[in-house]
Amino acid sequence: MRVPLLVFSSALAAVIFIFSSPQTAIGLENVATVHGGVYDWYTLELLPNAIVEVNTTPVQKIVATDGTYSFDLPSGDYVIRAVYYEGRLLYGEENITIVSPGDFTLDIVMFPPIDENVFDNDIFDDWDFPEVEADHGWIYLIVTSMAVLTALVFLYRLRSRKPKKREPPSKFKVVELPKDLKEVLDVVIQNGGRITQKELRKKLPYSEAKVSLMVADLEDRGLLRKIKKGRGNILAVTT
After folding, report:
1. Are residues 35 and 133 in the same domain?
2. Is 217 helix (H, G, I), strand (E, B) or coil?
3. Helices (H) and strands (E) in the chain, counts
4. 232 found inside a domain
5. Residues 133, 33: one domain?
6. DSSP β-ladder status, 76-84 and 68-73
7. What CATH number did the domain enclosing 64 receive?
């Protein structure tokens, strides 16, 4: 009975020595717990059954059945990657550096992969991915939203643009006339469409006889109307 008792005592002493050594204590003290959730970028809801992996040695990989994960990591630099492919393919990754023990929360937001080479990393070599096309619906949503916004801005500017001020049309007829007749008609129009024949002669460089002939010509054309008043005449433009 003494031999087995001696062997048991030696083994117990060895175990106590190992766990009481400074190196072992330091290793346990430097381990940190990193945990978080795996979220859909659009709905911000947890993604159950996402696969989460961290590049420790050896690699740690879990299936986040409820959309959450947790790893115990010693000091060092790590990349935590996650993949979700139930009906659509989503991918996310986060970097973390452990320098001291503690409890750290690191959530991963999953996006549709734009780069087709995102899975070329060696740590994914043993993952059996199904043939699923990347979901680019969010790209179309953004492009469509920008197009609608541009159209609304264009319509707003078009409706808020002030119309150019247009000159009111002249109430008098515009016809092709010889230069001298046009000059007579312009003087009458500039005077408000009505003038005495005496006043008209003063404004023109023509003789009284020529002015009388031009007034008669304009009357025949239906552009002027002569109204007798006392000893003189009032000339009015016909409209």
Report:
1. yes
2. helix
3. 6, 11
4. yes
5. yes
6. unpaired
7. 2.60.40.1120
The residue count for the chain: 239
**Domain's final residue, options 137, 169, 190:** 137
Convert the pLDDT of each residue in 185-203 to its tens digit: 888 898 888 888 888 888 8
Query: Quick one: which of 143, 87, 130, 148 has its CA closest to 112?
Result: 87
Q: Both tokens of residue 189? A: 């129009």
Domain enclosing residue 230, as ranges: 179-237
Decide if 49 contacts 63 (C-beta within 8 A): yes
- How far apart CA 55 and CA 98 sit, in angstroms, is 13
pTM for this structure? 0.42
Q: Which of 29, 96, 42 is nearest to 69 (CA)?
A: 96
Residue 23 corresponds to which tokens in the numbers above? 């190196």
The label of the residue with tokens 């991963």 reads 108
Q: Which of these three, 69, 103, 137, is where a domain ends?
A: 137
